[in-house]
Specification:
188 residues; mainly alpha; 7 helices; elongated
């Protein structure tokens, strides 16, 4: 199970796109009459899949490789989810609920933090297992004490940065998906 979960986190973009397709399929099964009732089931499925994938890529469901793009991904996915929820509340003439708007953010933050901690622990364990006394002594004689120290620090920083990027990717995808699910639930 851990290998499947780790694969899902490492390949967040592919898994997120597959989840978009599964969500479109589930929406067509549960609420076919709510979405373009004059068209065939397959056309509705393709249209909803395209909308979901478009929303995912427009509103930050991508894998960020720098801190700037991580921040932009978080902001855009949050805005996208809130637009979906608020437009459904206002469009249906229902009253605005701040708590409903917080649901995707809370779920996304929890998912992102759990992902960051888990990926960081896995990477730290693999890095730590590679650091033995023999390797450190060999590195000190080959590269010097300063370069050995900074090499170890760089490994841990790279692990932490990678774990942050995976946590942001999971946050962005969860926020967009839970915003869409909340929007669908508000339709009924």
């Amino acid at each position: 199970m851990k290998n499947i979960l780790f694969y899902s986190i490492v390949h967040a973009m592919k898994i997120g796109s597959a989840i978009c397709l599964l969500m479109a399929l589930l929406a067509m099964i549960l609420a076919e009459e709510l979405f373009m009732p004059n068209h065939s089931w397959f056309i509705n499925f393709l249209t909803l899949s395209g909308i979901l994938l478009g929303l995912k890529f427009i509103f930050g469901g991508w894998s960020a490789s720098s801190i700037k793009w991580m921040v932009i991904s978080c902001i855009m996915s949050t805005i996208g989810a809130e637009i979906m929820i608020i437009s459904q509340m206002v469009g249906e003439g229902k009253s605005f609920s701040f708590l409903i708007c917080l649901i995707p953010i809370i779920i996304g933050v929890l998912g992102g933090i759990i992902t960051y901690n888990w990926v960081n622990n896995v990477l730290d364990e693999s890095t730590t297992s590679g650091i033995t006394l023999d390797n450190v002594v060999d590195s000190v004689f080959d590269n010097g004490l300063k370069n050995t120290f900074w090499g170890i620090v760089d490994d841990y920083n790279a692990n932490m940065f990678y774990a942050y990027s995976r946590g942001v990717a999971v946050y962005s995808n969860i926020v967009i998906f839970s915003g869409f699910i909340t929007m669908i639930c508000l339709m009924k």
